[in-house]
Design goal:
The complex is a heterotrimer of chains A (295), B (388) and C (311).
Chain A lengths: L2 H5 L11 H11 L1 H18 L1 H4 L30 H37 L1 H15 L3 H12 L3 H28 L2 H9 L3 H37 L11 H8 L7 H29 L7
Chain B lengths: L13 H7 L5 H5 L3 H6 L7 E7 L3 E6 L20 E5 L4 H6 L8 E3 L7 H4 L4 E6 L8 E3 L4 H4 L1 H9 L3 H9 L4 E2 L23 H10 L2 E3 L5 E3 L12 E6 L3 H13 L3 E6 L2 H9 L5 E3 L8 H7 L17 H12 L3 H17 L3 E2 L2 E2 L2 E6 L2 E2 L2 E2 L6 E2 L4 E2 L1
Parallel strand pairs in B: 10-11, 10-12
Antiparallel strand pairs in B: 1-2, 2-3, 4-15, 5-15, 6-12, 6-13, 7-14, 8-9, 16-19, 17-18
Chain C lengths: L1 H28 L4 H9 L6 H10 L6 H14 L12 H36 L4 H15 L2 H16 L11 H30 L2 H8 L4 H19 L1 H18 L5 H10 L3 H29 L8
The chains are: A mainly alpha (295), B alpha+beta (388), C mainly alpha (311).
Chain lengths: 295, 388, 311
């Protein structure tokens, strides 16, 4: 997807809109993306204003345990007697932070590696590519599991583990974009003219790779929330009394029969957040490159 | 056949051991390695081992050559049921429901909160029995300055409400353990029940006295506490193998008096690693036996070594004297009496943090007749069982 | 084809090498003393420094790191992955004992995702723009966004507790496979459906199809051999990836459904800090995954001859 192609409109008299504005316009028209945005904005607001919005403190034993959803407790109480609604609202904070930080932990090293591999080429590229291939040889969650095994349980470690396990994909994506951009004549021209590598990367290559990267990163936030919840569910992530959604689900699974709400509502919360990111990600993909039909 | 055991000095827990340790055939044992022996067991009673799939199930078949020699069992000779399949189920909710859905005939040690399925159930029966022992006890690491002040330990005990814990988590179905031995233990010291009744105000006063004052946050901070830097927050680790939920409720209760505990659940080998490294504050330790020897195992500093059970670091000649009677005197009454004195000492010095006692619940389907529990919670007899 | 085969197989060797390096390196970084854990976990009794040292020597932990790695590699190739700290059984044996339930689950899940995904994708392509199309898209979003443990618990709740149709634990008999396979299959079917739909749309839009339609042939007949085969190619390419997703999904699914598989083994090994077991199981799963991808690539090359000649 080339920024140049869009801006080089054949008709010089036609009104020129920047590619970003065009993309934004397409995004806003995309129904799925709008639904996703509404979902996410809701959760972000809940996360930021959790203290004000939640009816009770998330870790306080406010009432009898295992109460079904009622007027006092819209989503019921959990196995210790804590209000589920408040815990879920506070859990949004944890899950969203987990998602974003994990992506940062993966994107920064990943994109850097990809840039280096793609731009420098040669044996550096070969070595990095082999390492990427090897990391991709581990089925997705397994790599995160190994890292957790090394670092020990805990929510920060989950962020690191999920982040690092996504590095190869960022690297591969970036490398591919860089290679494609490098092949463009204007890049070679810039290099011939004598522009320093950093300038070429910043001005020509990075803008072209940013599109697919943003799409991918958005989808990855959702994925990070999923994997993080899964790891917490297994006991390798957040520890009690944290109101992390995966952990809450795990705590509720023993009471599935008698108090189904304890395990179910956190699961639904995760689902809506991840759907939100997926919808937005797909919307971004369509907005940035309308030619690529959803796959 | 008579087997004779000869010891150089009296072994007071011989009978208790005899209920737990099987006698294996030396021919069979020398013919294989320990790992293989597990898979080809000889001497398993009326049922012989057919198949063992690790983490999945054990299949046993009745042996027609069996001649009964067990006084507890009525049926003589071969068992009435042909095959027994012991299925391992990791999910608690599934485990508890497995007899009510008809998937299984007997469920062993189901969670307390699943027992409601069987109370008014015409097709199944609920059996329950306690297990004598120390209960789900937590012990303190007495080597740490923060726990060396008796007032701090007492405050922790006054700050907990075990009845509330029992109600919240288990609908009141768990047993009481008010002291270093649980309440159903034959040598339980009654006096333990009156000590340390839930009194958060008293707990707070004790903490104030001990130099732990209210801090800027929710937790108390040290001020003039020996061995502790001023301003340190009162935070303790609570490490368990299971029943982490008890810790979580206690966590909320102790927060009221300004004490923070962080609950962690660790597997067995990790627990031992932490104990050996003295890397713990409040640690779970449970031994189960109707014999008071378990007190000696836990509280006698002679066993403070890797592989031993004395983890607290507490060493007091008065207590050790009582323990020696428990371990050495062949007369049961003397041992029981010494056990009560030992419990009194432990309680007065607030050396442990008792919580609750876990009963054993068995769900038995209506098709099964003759299922019998042993005297202690984990044993049961299948020999007399027949199906209809 | 032969040249491609050899080339492809040779490519996997450096990958496997680095995988083994990563697995080995991770274990060296782990905190805690494996020898201490070994003696505590299984034996009991007094642990003297002499016993510790003897076992350390025995396990080769005093050798330089390079030697240890070579021993590990040599062992891995000959089938000796060490001994589990907790169970004192050979790691490879423990893995092989638990391999069947995991493979059954992964394959059944894969088949389920294909059975659900392929027809759904085809119908969505044929009736493009209709409600089936919208339904397929929603279904695929839902699947990709649902946590595995959540779907597993919901299925148990409905089918085992309430309806009692299928067992909720264990790995015996085909009935115990239904819910776990459904869990993994439904979650991953969406991806297959979307892929099928878009590739089918592409195929239907191609010239030879239009020509055929212009000639008056019904789309069903046109689709025939070439159509379906070409439309399936993208699905085949991600079969390897899907298999990896299945393997990853077994970790949680086996835990919830009490299946004695390798996934659950890894989780428990991590919780118990059973390093040799973690190492061996991860290595094993990764090699399986790499092999699966290899097979898929070869299958793909057989289906689409063009790929064999592309470097």
């Amino acid at each position: 997807m080339s920024a140049e192609a869009l801006s080089a409109t054949p008709d010089a008299d036609a009104p020129r809109r920047s590619p970003t504005r065009l993309a934004f316009a397409r995004f806003v028209r995309h129904r799925g993306a709008m639904v996703g945005s509404v979902l996410l904005v809701t959760w972000v607001i809940l996360a930021i204003f959790a203290d004000a919005i939640a009816p009770y403190a998330p870790n306080e034993l406010v009432s009898r345990a295992r109460q079904a959803p009622s007027a006092d407790h819209w989503l019921g109480t959990d196995q210790l007697g804590r209000d589920m609604l408040s815990r879920i609202i506070h859990g949004a904070r944890i899950s969203l932070v987990l998602g974003f930080v994990s992506v940062l932990f993966g994107m920064i090293p990943g994109v850097t590696l990809g840039l280096i591999a793609g731009y420098v080429g040669g044996w550096v590229d070969a070595v990095i590519s082999r390492i990427i291939d090897a990391m991709l040889a581990f089925p997705s969650i397994i790599l995160a599991l190994i890292i957790i095994a090394t670092l020990g349980p805990g929510i920060l470690n989950v962020m690191i583990a999920v982040g690092i396990s996504s590095v190869p994909e960022y690297a591969r994506l970036t490398r591919g974009s860089v290679l494609a951009a490098r092949a463009q004549p204007y890049v070679e021209a810039a290099w011939l003219v004598g522009n320093p590598a950093r300038r070429i990367m910043a001005q020509h290559i990075l803008p072209n790779t940013s599109g697919p990267l943003i799409v991918f990163a958005t989808l990855q936030v959702g994925n990070a929330v999923l994997v993080g919840a899964g790891l917490s569910f297994l006991g390798l992530g957040a520890q009690p009394p944290t109101s992390e959604w995966g952990l809450m689900s795990a705590e509720g699974r023993d009471l599935l029969r008698r108090a189904w709400w304890i395990a179910t509502f956190p699961g639904i919360a995760i689902l809506t957040v991840v759907i939100g990111f997926n919808l937005i990600g797909d919307g971004l993909r369509d907005a940035i490159d309308p030619k690529s039909r959803p796959v | 056949m008579t087997v004779k055991f000869t010891y150089s000095e009296p072994w007071v827990t011989f009978l208790d051991m005899a209920t737990k340790a099987p006698i294996w055939s030396p021919t069979a044992a020398s013919a294989s390695t320990p790992q293989e022996f597990d898979k080809e067991l000889i001497g398993t009673g009326p049922y012989q081992l057919v198949e063992w799939v690790a983490n999945d199930y054990i299949l046993m078949e009745s042996w027609d050559g069996y001649k009964n020699a067990n006084a507890a069992v009525e049926l003589d000779g071969e068992a009435a049921v042909d095959t027994v399949r012991i299925q391992f189920i990791a999910e608690e909710a599934v485990h508890g429901a497995v007899v009510s859905t008809g998937e299984s005939d007997v469920a062993y040690q189901i969670p307390a909160l699943s027992t409601d399925l069987y109370l008014d159930n015409p097709d199944a029966e609920l059996l329950s029995i306690g297990q004598s022992g120390v209960g789900l006890q937590m012990i303190f690491n007495m080597r740490l300055p923060v726990l060396q002040d008796i007032r701090v330990r007492q405050a922790l005990l006054y700050g907990r409400d075990m009845e509330a814990v029992n109600d919240i988590l288990y609908d009141g179905l768990y047993g009481e353990a008010d002291g270093p031995l649980n309440n159903i233990h034959p040598c339980f010291w009654e006096g333990a029940s009156d000590m340390y009744q839930y009194d958060p105000e008293k707990a707070k006063a004790l903490l104030d006295e001990a130099g732990w004052v209210e801090g800027p946050g929710a937790l108390r901070v040290a001020q003039g506490v020996e061995g502790v830097e001023d301003g340190t927050r009162l935070e303790l680790g609570w490490s368990v193998l299971h029943h982490a939920e008890i810790g979580e409720v206690v966590q909320a209760q102790l927060l009221e008096i300004g004490v923070g505990i962080s609950v962690e659940q660790v597997p067995g080998p990790i627990q031992l690693e932490r104990v050996n490294a003295r890397d713990f504050e409040i640690m779970y330790e449970r031994l189960r036996s109707p014999d008071p020897k378990i007190l000696d195992d836990i509280w006698n500093p002679a066993y403070d070594m890797p592989g031993g059970w004395a983890w607290t670091g507490y060493d007091n000649p008065e207590l050790t004297a009582h323990l020696e009677v428990i371990a050495g005197d062949p007369v049961w009454e003397n041992r029981c009496e010494a056990a009560k004195l030992a419990q009194e000492h432990i309680m007065e010095n607030a050396l442990n943090f008792p919580t609750l006692s876990q009963p054993s619940y068995f769900a038995v389907s209506g098709n099964v007749e003759g299922f019998k529990l042993g005297a202690e919670g984990t044993h049961f007899f299948l020999h007399d069982v027949s199906m209809n | 084809m032969g040249r491609y085969l050899v080339g492809r197989i040779l490519q996997t060797i450096p990958v496997l090498f680095i995988v083994s390096l990563v697995v080995f390196a991770i274990m060296r970084i782990l905190p805690g003393d494996p020898v201490m854990l070994m003696l505590q976990g299984a034996e009991g009794g007094v642990i003297t420094p002499e016993r510790l040292e003897a076992l350390r020597e025995n396990m080769g932990l005093n050798d330089p790191v390079v030697v240890q790695y070579l021993n590990f590699l040599g062992g891995a190739v000959t089938g000796d992955l060490g001994e589990s700290i907790r169970f004192r059984d050979p790691v490879l044996e423990m893995i092989l004992d638990r391999l069947a339930p995991t493979m059954h689950l992964a394959i059944a899940g894969l088949i389920c995702s294909l059975i659900v995904g392929v027809p759904l994708g085809m119908i969505a392509a044929f009736w493009r723009g209709g409600w089936i199309d919208a339904f397929t898209m929603s279904f695929s979003y839902l699947g990709a966004s649902t946590p595995v443990f959540f779907l597993a618990l919901v299925l148990i709740s409905v089918f085992a507790f309430n309806l009692g149709w299928f067992p909720s634990a264990g790995a015996t008999g085909w009935r115990s496979l239904v819910m776990p396979a459904l869990t993994l299959g439904l979650i991953n079917a969406g991806l297959i459906a979307r892929l099928m739909r878009s590739s089918l749309l592409e195929v239907l839009g191609e010239d030879y199809m239009r020509t055929g339609r212009a000639k008056g042939l019904p789309p069903g007949l046109l689709l025939g051999r070439h159509g379906i085969k070409n439309a399936l190619i993208p699905v085949v390419t991600i079969l390897g990836l899907q298999f990896g997703n299945m393997l990853a999904g077994t970790v949680v699914t086996e835990t919830v459904f009490s299946r004695p598989g390798v996934g659950r083994l890894i989780v428990n090994a991590i919780l118990a800090k059973d390093y040799p077991l973690i190492q061996g199981a991860v290595l094993f799963l990764s090699v399986t995954y790499v092999t699966a991808n290899l097979i898929v690539d070869i299958l793909y090359a057989w289906l689409d001859p063009r790929i064999r000649y592309v470097r």
